[in-house]
Amino acid sequence: MRTVGVEEELLLVDPDSGEPRALAAAVLARAAQDGGEDDVFEKELHSQMLEFATRPQSDMHALGAEIQRCRKEAARHAGDVGAVAAALATSPLPVTPKLTTNSRYEWMAREFGLLPREQLVCGCHVHVSVDSDEEAVAVLDRIRPWLPVLTALSANSPFWQGNDSGYASYRSRVWARWPMAGPTGLFGSAEAYHRLVGDMVATGALRDEGMVYFDARISRTYPTVELRVTDVCLDASTTVLVATLARGLVETAAREAAAGVGPMPHDVSLMRLAAWRAARSGVRGELLDPVTMRPRPAAEVVGALLDHVDEALVEAGDAERARETAESVLREGNGAVVQRRLLEERGSLGAVVTECARRTQG
Fold first, then answer.
1. Domains and CATH numbers, the chain
2. What is the CB neighbour count within 10 angstroms for residue 217?
3. Which of 38, 75, 285, 344 has the fewest CB atoms below 10 angstroms from its CB?
4. Where are the alpha helices (DSSP H) in 85-235?
5. Residue 20 in contact with residue 11, Cβ under 8 Å?
6. 354: part of which helix (H) or strand (E)?
7. Would you say 144 and 290 are in contact if contact means Cβ atoms under 8 Å apart?
């Protein structure tokens, strides 16, 4: 059974107004004082953000429990310094991001100008174990067309600087501004993958391999494939769904490669359009079918993904729960739908943020 780990980025906000607060250093210091398992927390590009990483898990129920525990611990430590933690992929309210003091982040600010200074976004990264770099590249080549469906399910960033962006996942559009981010072409081999990464670093535009922001990449830290296309999800059950589908995709792709089934040869230009469509529509409207690259209702495309990975889900014991959660997201809406509904009901973006902070804890 392949193991799965999740990294989530949370937004630190004022408990009353909902405005982001630059308190990550204080929250991390509080977590360090507390000891225990709280070394899961890390700083991020902006000091209004807090990241945590779960341990690798083979059981999705255990993964869900750990995500909930980490979210509650983040909320507790944030509360100790006068903030709350919210699983929001962008701040609904206007914000002036504050860069974390760090030589790496300062280098990025010098090299990329305004881009990192204004990019306060919170994502979710899923790590799935692989046996080798060759298997990892075989997986990367075969999961490409399916990744936008994960973006659509996770979409949780409809607002930007106090306005409705018109997107379900505006975070993904902001993230796409990085010149090294986005979908990739077919690699074919681990040698070709590493050669491209080396060439990218050699341009001088990247500080190191850690700045290769592909939609999915070989982790330089763990023996995993890292999927990087999803917003941080408002509901932890959606995070578990994304992680479950990610493992299903990796397992299915590895089996296809072993059986000699080649990857779909879609051009990167089509991949970018599929990613844009997913960010725009979320689970409302249409997505691009991963096989045909033609529009289909989102529910049908999500169903196609579930069918594509069904064998892997059944063998892992995840099929029933994955389908139930996916049906719930399609019926009730993802985080973007919930945020817009809350704005209609409560009348202010501040109220949206504070309610989302409450829901973050489950």
1. 4-360 (3.30.590.20)
2. 20
3. 344
4. 103-112, 114-118, 133-143, 147-154, 170-175, 190-202
5. yes
6. helix 349-360
7. no
Residue 39 pLDDT: 79
Of all residues in the chain, the percent with pLDDT exceeding 70 is 99
pLDDT at 301: 98
pLDDT of residue 38: 55
98 has pLDDT over 90:
yes
pLDDT tens digits along 101-148? 999 999 999 999 999 999 999 999 999 999 999 999 999 999 999 999
Cα dist from 35 to 6, 27, 73, 260, whole Å: 21, 13, 12, 49
CB 65 within 8 A of CB 72: no
Between vectors from CA 120 to CA 279 and to CA 64, what angle results, nearest 5°? 70
329-353 per-residue burial string, b: 16 or more CB within 10 A, e: under 16: bbeebbbbbbbbebbeeeeebbebb
